[in-house]
Specification:
DNA primase DNAg catalytic core, N-terminal domain; alpha+beta; 3 domains; 325 residues; DNA Primase, Chain A; 5-stranded antiparallel sheet; binds zinc ion; Dna Topoisomerase Vi A Subunit, Chain: A, domain 2; elongated
């Protein structure tokens, strides 16, 4: 009990001490401040130089670890004491010292910059009759060969580009659960394209087209977007052969209990690893034997038949499969 009290005392003392050093430092730059409510101090504002101390600094960190400040006269405000000290012309030594007491918000916010993904500016819809260019007709013919209907084109917002980086490419956007774009893939519809695929430089650790997914029903994991379109119902394309961590987290934490894994035979090793993980999480896993045909080649009817024939994977099957590769 005695030790606990001592620890508590040291903690409190530590917080007070840090604050006091910071206050002394800020006082040395902005002039001695006046104590106000809740551990705040008021200073003459370096922005508007109002004759009264109207700039209030919060010396106790808020939940985000910031020390917000605000001038009641000119309404300048910020989250970082460092910004304020720089503005007030503090020497580099003082800034360096201040950095040992407070977080450098400039740095942390820079780290958190999120790239907002947008469709390429040259993206054009394919489901509108406003233009009937030859390029558009090529794009539509390509999709028709892949068994993508006009309904799919509208449902998935499939577009194409006639110019720019994605010239002569089909654009397949994906959306999150709120319907905001979270990724897109582009693939050429030219016969002998030099670049066949082109993807944006953003994280693939997303759940593609989650707005179409009903987590109360069995889900089907497949490789590509065209596969998901062919499967039609509750299919999540992995955009590759890996279950990315956000998707894995979502599956594990959701109520979905039946998971079909429909990946190429050449990805069997990864597929078995995912089966094992999902089974260990108490999910019922179905490993769909695609027999060298992907769902988009197979088509909806044949794939559905195949799914209906597939039985849940047991640990014994899993071991057999593992031994056979
Ligand atoms: Zn001011």
């Amino acid at each position: 009990m005695k030790i606990l009290w001592k620890l508590k005392y040291i903690n409190v003392y530590y917080i007070v001490m840090v604050n006091q050093l910071l206050v002394t430092l800020v006082n040395s730059v902005l002039g001695t401040g006046k104590q106000t409510a809740r551990g705040n101090m008021a200073y003459t504002c370096p922005h508007c130089n109002h004759h009264k101390p109207k700039l209030e600094i919060n010396f106790t960190e808020n939940k985000e670890g910031h020390n917000p400040w605000h001038c009641w006269v000119c309404d300048k405000k910020g989250k970082s004491i460092l910004h304020l000290l720089r503005k007030a012309g503090a020497s580099q030594d003082k800034i360096t010292e201040a950095k040992t007491y407070v977080k450098d918000v400039t740095y942390t916010t820079k780290e958190k910059v999120v790239n907002v993904l947008k469709l390429p500016s040259e993206y054009m819809r394919l489901d509108q009759s406003d233009n009937n260019s030859i390029i558009k007709r090529h794009a539509l013919a390509y999709l028709k060969r892949r068994d993508i209907s006009m309904t799919d084109i509208s449902k998935y917002n499939i577009g194409y580009c006639e110019e720019g980086l994605y010239k002569n490419m089909i654009i397949l956007p994906t959306y999150d659960k709120d319907g905001s774009i979270n990724y897109y893939t582009a693939r050429s519809f030219e016969k002998d394209a030099f670049v066949k695929y082109r993807n944006p430089q953003v994280s693939r650790d997303i759940i593609p087209n989650e707005h179409f997914i009903n987590w109360n029903l069995p889900i089907i994991l497949c490789e590509g977007l065209f596969d998901a379109m062919a499967i039609k119902r509750n299919a999540i394309p992995l955009l590759g052969k890996n279950i990315q961590s956000n998707l894995m987290k979502k599956i594990v934490t959701s109520v979905v209990d039946k998971i079909y894994i429909a990946l190429d035979r050449d990805a069997i090793k990864q597929a078995l690893k995912f089966c094992e993980k999902l089974m260990a999480e108490g999910k019922e896993v179905y490993l769909v034997d695609l027999q060298d045909k992907d769902p988009s080649e197979m088509g909806f009817k044949n794939f559905t038949k195949l799914i209906q024939k597939t039985v849940p994977l047991t640990y014994y099957n899993l071991m057999e499969q593992k031994l056979s590769i």
